[in-house]
Amino acid sequence: MNPRWMRGVTLKILYPLCMLAASFKKSKKEDYQRFVVNLNNKLVKREKPMTKNILLLLPHCLQMSECNIRLTYNIYNCERCGRCEIKDLIHIADENGLKLSIATGGSLARRIISDIQPDAVVAVACENDLSSGIADSYPLPVLGIPNERPYGPCMNTIVDLQKVKEAISFFGQNSNRRNLLQ
Fold this sequence. Notes:
It is built from six helices and four strands, in the order ααβαβαβαβα. By secondary structure, it is α/β, with parallel strands linked by helices.
C-alpha cells in the first residue's frame, strides 16, 4: 500500500476517531496522540519524500521561562547563554542550512508553514500540538518529536537533540538522493 495514502487515512480518519475515543477516556488522550505521531513518523519514513527546503519548527516553551529575551517571533534574538537548548538548535539548523522558526502555538505554527512553504518539517512540540499540526499539514511530510516536560506543560521543556538530528538527517539523505537523480 502507498505510504502517503496510508498517512492520509491515519491523519484524516484514524486521528479524529482517536480523539473521539479520547473524549470518553480523557486519561488516554495523550497516548492516542503519541500513537498518531509515531505512526505518522513511520509512514513518512516509508514514503522517503525527496526534500530540499526543510523547516525546523520549535515551540516557545523550549526557552527558559526566566529568560529576559522573548523569542516569540525571532529565534535569532537568543543570547545563546546555554541555559536552554535553543542555542544548540540554532547551531543544528545553521549547520544543516535549515529554515528555523519558533511558534507560540498551533495557529502560528500553521501560518509559519504556510508562509515558508517547506518541502518537509521537523517539528518539536507536545503531543497535542504535534498531532493536530501534522494532521492539518497533510500531505506535507512532517516528522514530529515530542518534547519532554519535566516542569509540566508549556514551561521549560526540553527535547532530545539526537532525535532532532536524526530527523534532519533522514530528510537530508532524501535531499542527497534527489541531487543524485538530477
